[in-house]
């Protein structure tokens, strides 16, 4: 068994501060979206991702990957978005086990309504607290962390996907395909 590399006092201080900042930022954004738009951040992220996709349509597996959600969590979110009329699901013609999620005009309208408040909350809580140099450094730090976690996260996702694919093979195909006109996407800055 490898020897534990304990955190130094400074590393422990930074870890706790970073963890608190992430938790508080997530809580701030979640509260703003719930109070002003009646949706959790997870739903907002799904709407943003779909708005940026050609035809506002994406395979559920790809949507799960882009939203960093488990397939079961995403399926629950899309079911709720579908009940609100903001997203439609349809079966994949090529792979009956697969499914598509498509942003509806009502979903685009909900996103366009929610985006200004969300962007304002992110700007106020994060970017207004930092200098331009700190923003640049935060970007570098975030990229390094994401890069360091990419391989372990990809391995875990592959294992989850294999288990879900095996389970999906035993399920009936989903509902018939829906079609619709594409709509303008919300700017990437609205994320």
Average pLDDT, to the nearest integer?
Answer: 85
Q: Which topology of the domain at 29-129 and 172-186 does CATH recognise?
A: Arc Repressor Mutant, subunit A
Approximate strand percentage = 5-15%
Distance between the termini: 42 Å
Succession of helices and strands: HHEHHEEHH
What is the count of DSSP helices, taking H or I runs of 4+ residues?
Answer: 6
CATH superfamily of the domain at 29-129 and 172-186: Winged helix-like DNA-binding domain superfamily/Winged helix DNA-binding domain
Structural class: mainly alpha
Helix content: 55-70%
Q: How does CATH name the architecture of the domain at 29-129 and 172-186?
A: Orthogonal Bundle
Shape: globular
Biggest sheet: strands, sense, closure? 3 strands, antiparallel
Q: Any low-confidence stretches, pLDDT <50, length ≥5?
A: 170-185
Name the CATH class of the domain at 29-129 and 172-186: Mainly Alpha
Q: How many beta strands in the DSSP annotation? A: 3
For the largest sheet, list the strands in their spatial order. 1-3-2
Radius of gyration: 19 Å
């Amino acid at each position: 068994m490898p020897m534990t590399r304990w955190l130094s006092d400074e590393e422990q201080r930074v870890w706790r501060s970073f963890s608190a900042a992430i938790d508080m930022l997530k809580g701030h954004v979640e509260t703003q979206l719930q109070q002003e738009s009646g949706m959790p951040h997870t739903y907002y992220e799904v709407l943003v991702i779909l708005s940026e996709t050609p035809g506002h349509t994406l395979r559920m597996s790809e949507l799960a990957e882009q939203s960093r959600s488990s397939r079961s969590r995403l399926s629950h979110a899309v079911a709720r978005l579908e009940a609100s009329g903001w997203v439609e699901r349809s079966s994949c013609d090529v792979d009956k086990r697969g499914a598509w999620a498509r942003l509806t005009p009502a979903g685009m309208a909900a996103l366009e309504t929610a985006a200004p408040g969300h962007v304002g909350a992110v700007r106020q809580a994060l970017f207004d607290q930092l200098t331009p140099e700190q923003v640049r450094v935060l970007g570098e730090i975030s990229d390094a962390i994401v890069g360091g976690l990419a391989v372990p996260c990809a391995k875990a996702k592959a294992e989850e996907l294999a288990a879900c694919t095996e389970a999906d093979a035993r399920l009936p195909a989903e509902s018939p395909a829906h079609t619709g006109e594409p709509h303008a996407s919300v700017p990437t800055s609205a994320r």
